[in-house]
């Protein structure tokens, strides 16, 4: 359910539109429940009357870690990157690879165990 809300908030929306879209997606919260969730979730940002998902999602966190580990290096083992992932985040090496690759800045070596910078 939370994923559905974050998906809708990839683009900023007023609460009325968000409420309608969530109802259509099967999330049957009333307006007060939705307002409470939006206020309590630290990943949700409000700008004026628009709500959007902030930058603290898993992809952003993992990509920040990859960027730090890769800083100035052409390659880094995925297991090395995993050492820097906080204990409260559960993510596999395969997920790290997919997130890094989707950024367009990194590619997976043919052995599947090493990330490499893309050639710019």
Notable traits:
120 residues, alpha+beta, 3-stranded antiparallel beta sheet, 46% helix, elongated
Q: Could you walk me through the main structural features you see in this protein, from its secondary elements to its overall organization?
A:
There is one protein chain. The chain has 120 residues and is an alpha+beta fold. Helix content is 46%, strand content 17%. It has helices at 2-8, 15-24, 31-40, 58-70, 78-82, 93-102; strands spanning 13-14, 44-47, 50-53, 75-77, 106-108, 114-117. It has a three-stranded antiparallel beta sheet. A three-stranded antiparallel beta sheet has the order 4-6-5. It is elongated and about 50 Å long. The model has no long low-confidence stretch (mean pLDDT 88).
Secondary-structure topology with pairs:
Layout: H1 2-8, E1 13-14, H2 15-24, H3 31-40, E2 44-47, E3 50-53, H4 58-70, E4 75-77, H5 78-82, H6 93-102, E5 106-108, E6 114-117
Antiparallel strand pairs: 1-3, 2-3, 4-6, 5-6
């Amino acid at each position: 359910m939370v994923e559905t809300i974050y998906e809708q908030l990839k683009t900023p929306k007023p609460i009325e539109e968000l409420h309608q879209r969530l109802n259509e997606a099967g999330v049957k919260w009333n307006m007060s429940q939705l307002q409470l969730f939006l206020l309590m979730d630290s990943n949700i940002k409000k700008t004026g009357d628009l709500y959007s998902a902030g930058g603290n999602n898993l992809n952003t966190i993992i990509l920040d870690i990859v960027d730090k580990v890769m800083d100035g290096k052409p390659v880094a083992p995925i297991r090395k990157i995993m050492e820097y992932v906080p204990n409260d985040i559960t993510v596999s090496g395969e997920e790290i690879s997919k997130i890094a690759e989707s950024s367009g800045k990194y590619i997976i070596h043919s052995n599947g165990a090493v990330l490499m910078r893309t050639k710019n």
